[in-house]
Amino acid sequence: MSELALSVFAARTGAHLVLPPNGRSWRDHLRHFDAGRYAAELAARGLRFLPRSQFPSLLAAIHDPPPGLFLRGAADPAVLGRPAVAVVGARACSGYGASTARMLGRELAAAGLVVVSGLARGVDAEAHRGALDAGGTTVAVLGCGVDRDYPSAHRELAARIAAGRGLVVSEYAPGVDPAPWRFPARNRIIAGLCAATVVVEARSRSGALITADLALEEGREVFAVPGEIGSALSEGTNALLKLGASPLTSPDDVLMSYGLEAAEEPDRAGLLGLLPATADELVRRTGRATAEVSQALVELELAGRVVQHEGVYRVQ
């Protein structure tokens, strides 16, 4: 029996978790499994399967690698072997956490790193969006079938990732429903793909802390964004800092560990030379669309290059 047949079958069924259907033995079931036909069915749906033998070295080295990964997206699977950083955190994050995650996703991706996260609400989604804002590469790891957009509110985000330079991946076959136990399991893949993990915000009992623990177990670096004393959303990150995680106060903290430098944030709409000014004044003076000017201002503000007070934008 080929490795592909064994790997695909294991991933389809959950391997060690699910018995073969109809009481048949593993050997009998595998004898009737046509891996080539199944691969063709996947391709017809825009999906692929990557067996464990083709994993990048970091993922292959973890304690419990999956039997394979299902992939959604046109990007080369070699993306999974590029230098990558996980950015994870609370689903119900604060506005500060959301803006920090998006900024980190954008600047780390702009510097050439692949941003890996879990497509969940809050920090995960913002990290993916930041990487996409920079025109960079991001990988979303699901805790359900690779064809599922979970949560459904992130269908468009998943489509942007798959249509761009990134991938949506899962160890679970198409059609597998999300289940609570599958999300902690998928966190080992998020941590396993990366040499470093960044936790932006996390409560004391948080899935992001599971990812950080898994990263530490594999000898990978963990960064935590310091949080406000007394905030429940900072309990997890501050606890990580007490345990020896590296404090993150700038994207440079991560980039230095990879030997990289931050990419200069482009002034896409040519606004810096026109400041101070309100958004309406900038629209009139540049002749650009309101939406384009607003987006450029948001990017510049998140990058720390401009500051806004009472509607007036100034160079930081």
Report on this model:
It is a single chain. With 316 residues, the protein is an alpha/beta fold. Among the domains are: 158 residues, Rossmann fold (3-Layer(aba) Sandwich); 44 residues, Winged helix-like DNA-binding domain superfamily/Winged helix DNA-binding domain (Arc Repressor Mutant, subunit A), CATH 1.10.10. 40% of the residues lie in helices and 15% in strands. The strands form two sheets. Strands 1-2-6-5-4-3-7-8-9 form a nine-stranded mixed beta sheet, with helices on both faces. The chain has a three-stranded antiparallel beta sheet with strand order 10-12-11. Strand 7, helix 9 and strand 8 form a beta-alpha-beta unit. The chain is globular. It starts with a helix and ends with a strand.
CATH topology term of the domain at 77-143 and 158-166 and 176-257: Rossmann fold
Number of strands: 12
Weakly predicted, low-confidence segments: 14-21
Query: How large is the count of helical segments?
Result: 13
Largest sheet: 9 strands, mixed
Which CATH top level class of the domain at 77-143 and 158-166 and 176-257 fits? Alpha Beta
Euclidean distance between termini CA atoms: 63 Å
Please give the share of residues in helix: 25-40%
What multimeric state do the chains show? single chain
CATH architecture of the domain at 77-143 and 158-166 and 176-257: 3-Layer(aba) Sandwich
From the alpha-carbon coordinates, what is the Rg to the nearest angstrom?
Answer: 21 Å
- Across the major sheet, the strand order is 1-2-6-5-4-3-7-8-9
Mean pLDDT: 86
Q: Give the helix/strand class.
A: alpha/beta
- Strand content bin: 5-15%
